[in-house]
């Protein structure tokens, strides 16, 4: 299965297994945030990096819940299984006992509430593998960012600032369902374009460079690129970066509550 097969329509995101079992959009999004936060918190404690292991784990997490409900598998168990699998896939493996030890230390209440064990995580990994159809390769948005930035004629200082800021935005995007709506190269391209537009004078060849960039990219198609670029411009202008991501998945930003 190719990367493109993991892209869904917005209507499909409104009809996930969780939504069909009665969770509201806000409740589902809250649990997605909690799961990604667990991946980031536990992974960071284990000295894993967002590039590539933690990002890969979050992609597995979001994809899994297009097949199962949060009512069927709690977010923490899924987060640990995704982290365990991503570590092996990205050649940064961690022992299951170390993962569960850190999880128990950081997430005392949910860990005990759901009776999570090392054996349980190992058993869940088998379910995760079958659900993902053993299609475990996840494109790296950070690699695309570094590839795209080379096309622009920028100073070393501008390049550093853009890459650093866009890198943070890519990390933040892992908390949303953008990866289910758009191909990873498009997400990287769009984030970089926005950051570049904000950091340097947009009149400095921005339009010319952007057109050349789209033409040189093999994966993003121009119509799709234009569509997401317009959405980004409107979203960032009205709501700011985080608000834009929330808007894409149709959830009022003041209704989002992140739990432990």
Keywords:
Cyclin A, domain 1; mainly alpha; 3 domains; CYCLIN domain-containing protein; 67% helix; 14 helices; single chain; 260 residues
What does this structure look like?
- The protein is mostly helical and 260 residues long.
- The protein folds into three domains: 10-132, Cyclin-like (Cyclin A, domain 1, Orthogonal Bundle), CATH 1.10.472; 143-215, Cyclin-like (Cyclin A, domain 1, Orthogonal Bundle); 220-259.
- Helices cover 67% and strands 0% of the residues.
- It is built from 14 helices and no strands.
- It has helices at residues 10-13, 17-20, 25-45, 50-64, 75-89, 96-106, 108-113, 118-131, 141-149, 156-173, 178-181, 184-199, 206-216, 222-248.
- α4 crosses α5 and α9 crosses α12.
- Residues 225-260 have low confidence and may be disordered.
Secondary-structure element sequence? HHHHHHHHHHHHHH
List segments where confidence is low: pLDDT < 50 over at least 5 consecutive residues. 225-260
Tell me the Rg in angstroms. Answer: 19 Å
Assign the structural class, choosing from mainly alpha, mainly beta, alpha/beta, alpha+beta, or little secondary structure: mainly alpha
Assigned CATH class of the largest domain: Mainly Alpha
- How many helices? The count is 14
